[in-house]
């Protein structure tokens, strides 16, 4: 300490002005004062250090106690975790034992929910039972139940049963209810009264509707079926509950078959596919039908007139072939006519009637022969178009070659369609004409025999 005091004194002495005279007593007093002040500062610093040390020691003691508590809690939790793991294993084994057939029930429930979801989503009945206000949507419920990883609850099983039961019950009902229906032009769906026949068809008036399960809305078919089927829908829409039986349309494919029916082309569209050959074939057929009808009416009237003449053989009438034949020898009934002259008169009379009786039969035979040939021409043209399409596209896509094949088939059908009916029609005309000619020949031979008997003495 004396060294430090001495050094401090020397420093003070050096700091004093040069002109100031400082004695050794004053210097000793200042050194003593400085020493006391330094001791005071050291005491204050030691007190601060001691205070900080005490605080840190307190913190250390608190952390140590907290760590000890946490270690004890960790040990307790670890023991509880081990005990819970053992308990979980035991409960899992107990659950497996008590489940028994519930595992199979779970699998069956998932399978039934999946199958029912795919069926009920496409069903028309879904339009009547849209999402209830207080329950989950049916599609979402069945989807969730089909992909569940846990056993279904009693409530879920009851709702699954309810949905299936409601679908089965509604499948046998014909009901009217309000459902969203969209217009043909894609207008916004509006609530409309719909008539549903089980899960088969739905209609509004005489229009049939298609169900869009994704949008949950009805839309009318772009093309409605034939008038007969539309009349069935109209009659059903106007039927009341007092009617006992009413005819209705049922599509077992739930709209698929009806959609195919409405897309089926009509006769005019099929004829258009046949092209020019089809129009020529139809024109030939119509000409044959007109000729057949005219000749048929003529032969029926002639047959009726000949039948009348047979009942009144003594009164020949020039309005029928038999009457004109009988009048061939009317000039002189008392005197015998030479056999050769009588035969010539009778033959001439019969020959005059034959062209009228066999009229149009040659044309019908021509139409019968030309029909299949025209169909063959159309078939060849259609196949040429098909091969050209395949060559141009480089692929045999059915949609690309359908037009050519359709033209070939339609031309063949039209050719056979006029040939077969006209064949039977011509056969009918030939039968009627042969019957009348047979009557003329018989009575001509009778007249000739009567004339020969008169020539004998």
Short précis:
By secondary structure, the protein is an alpha+beta fold. It has helices spanning 2-15, 24-99, 102-122, 138-146, 154-171, 227-238, 256-263, 267-311, 321-326, 339-357, 361-393, 398-455; strands spanning 174-181, 190-197, 201-204, 207-212, 217-220.
Keyword list:
3 domains; alpha+beta; five-stranded antiparallel sheet; rod-shaped; 457 residues
Explain what you see.
The structure is a single chain. This protein is of the alpha+beta class. The chain has three domains: 101-171, no CATH class; 174-261, no CATH class; 267-455, no CATH class. The protein contains twelve helices and five strands. Strands 1-2-3-4-5 form a five-stranded antiparallel sheet. A hairpin with a 3-residue loop joins strand 2 (190-197) and strand 3 (201-204). The mean pLDDT is 79.
């Amino acid at each position: 300490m004396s060294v430090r005091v001495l050094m401090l004194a020397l420093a003070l002495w050096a700091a004093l002005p040069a002109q100031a005279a400082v004695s050794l007593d004053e210097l000793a007093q200042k050194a003593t004062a400085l020493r006391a002040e330094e001791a005071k500062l050291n005491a204050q610093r030691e007190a601060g250090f001691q205070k900080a040390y005490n605080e840190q020691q307190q913190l250390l003691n608190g952390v140590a106690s907290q760590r000890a508590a946490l270690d004890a809690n960790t040990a307790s939790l670890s023991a509880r975790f081990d005990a819970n793991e053992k308990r979980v294993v035991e409960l899992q084994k107990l659950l497996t034992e008590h489940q028994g057939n519930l595992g199979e029930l779970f699998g069956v429930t998932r399978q039934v929910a999946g199958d029912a979801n795919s069926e009920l989503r496409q069903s028309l009945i879904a339009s009547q039972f849209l999402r209830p206000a207080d329950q989950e949507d049916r599609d979402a419920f069945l989807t969730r139940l089909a992909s569940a990883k846990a056993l279904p609850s009693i409530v879920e099983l009851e709702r699954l049963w309810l949905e299936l039961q409601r679908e089965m019950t509604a499948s046998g009902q014909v009901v009217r209810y309000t459902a969203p229906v969209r217009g043909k032009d894609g207008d916004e769906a509006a609530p409309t009264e719909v008539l549903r026949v089980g899960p088969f068809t739905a209609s509004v008036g005489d229009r049939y509707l298609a169900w869009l399960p994704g949008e949950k809305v009805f839309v009318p078919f772009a093309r409605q079926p034939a008038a007969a089927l539309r009349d069935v829908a109209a009659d059903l829409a106007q039927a009341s509950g007092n009617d006992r039986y009413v005819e209705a349309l049922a599509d077992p494919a739930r709209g698929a078959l009806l959609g195919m029916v409405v897309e089926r082309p009509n006769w005019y569209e099929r004829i258009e596919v046949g092209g020019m050959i089809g129009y020529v074939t139809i024109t030939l057929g119509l000409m044959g039908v007109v000729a057949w009808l005219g000749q048929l009416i003529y032969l029926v009237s002639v047959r009726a007139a000949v039948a009348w003449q047979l009942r009144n053989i003594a009164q020949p009438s020039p309005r029928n072939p038999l009457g004109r034949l009988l009048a061939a020898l009317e000039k002189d009934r008392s005197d015998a006519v030479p056999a050769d002259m009588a035969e010539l008169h009778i033959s001439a009379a019969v020959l005059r009637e034959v062209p009228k009786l066999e009229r149009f039969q040659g044309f019908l035979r021509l139409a019968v022969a030309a029909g299949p040939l025209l169909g063959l021409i159309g078939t060849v043209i259609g196949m040429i178009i098909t091969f050209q399409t395949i060559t141009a596209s480089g692929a045999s896509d059915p949609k690309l070659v359908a037009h050519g094949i359709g033209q070939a088939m339609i031309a063949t059908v039209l050719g056979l369609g006029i040939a077969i009916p006209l064949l039977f029609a011509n056969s009918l005309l030939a039968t009627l004409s042969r019957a009348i000619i047979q009557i003329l020949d018989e009575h001509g031979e009778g007249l000739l025999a009567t004339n020969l008997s008169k020539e004998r003495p």
